[in-house]
Amino acid sequence: AIDALVADPARVAVFAPWELYDEAAAASRGVFYPQPEVEDYRPGDGLRLLARLTHRVALPEIGLYRTAALHRVLAMPKSVHWAHVWAVRLLGEGPLRLQPQPFYRFHVRTRIVRERPQLGNEQAGSHLDRYRGGVEVALATALRGKPPLPANVRQDLRELVHGFAAQRLPVAARIAGQSGDP
């Protein structure tokens, strides 16, 4: 990821899925979401980036950033999930990359702690509106300054938002069921 930033000084961020690691078993449990190949995005590609992230249910939460670019977009929304918003705002600052190789490892279990809950798993059960709102704000950001869209494209974008929310719903239901909270 650092090499990607060094290779392109204009690139403002590199995002990757994170590895879920079981330290007690000394084994990887895989990555949080699939990112099969390197994908580069340029300013103006906000809709394409958002479509890719929502299709994969990828949460661009783990990234390496150029500090100056991050400072220009560094507002933490209070009512929506921040990750998609930041990714699209960063794209307005310069190119960014999605890469398959994780550079962050979340320890789901350590030698001392039996099960270590991931905050995102806890949020998935209660933050459905925040996730959806984050996608909606990112979409509005990507569309800012563009001419009005044809009805069929607006419908496709509605389906993108609804589809992302629909993919998160079973996750929320599973987590709520596992916690005994109907």
Strand share of the residues? 5-15%
What is the string of SSEs from the N terminus onward? HEEEEHEHHEEHHH
Spans with pLDDT under 50 lasting ≥5 residues? none
Provide mean pLDDT, rounded: 86
Give, in spatial order, the strands making up the sheet with the most strands: 4-6-1-5
Number of strands: 7
Shape: globular
Radius of gyration: 17 Å
H/I helix tally: 7
The helix/strand class is alpha/beta
**Share in helix:** 40-55%
- For the termini, the CA-CA separation is 41 Å
- Major β-sheet annotation: 4 strands, mixed
Structure, described:
By secondary structure, the chain is an alpha/beta fold. It is 46% helix and 14% strand. Strands 4-6-1-5 form a 4-stranded mixed sheet. The longest helix is centred in the last third of the chain and has 28 residues, at 151-178. The chain is globular and about 55 Å long.
Summarize the structure.
The chain is an alpha/beta fold.
List keywords for this structure.
about 180 residues, alpha/beta, three-stranded mixed sheet, single chain
Topology:
Elements: H1 2-7, E1 13-15, E2 19-22, E3 27-31, E4 39-41, H2 46-56, E5 63-65, H3 67-73, H4 82-91, E6 96-98, E7 105-109, H5 119-124, H6 128-143, H7 151-178
Parallel strand pairs: 1-6, 2-7
Antiparallel strand pairs: 1-5, 2-3, 4-6
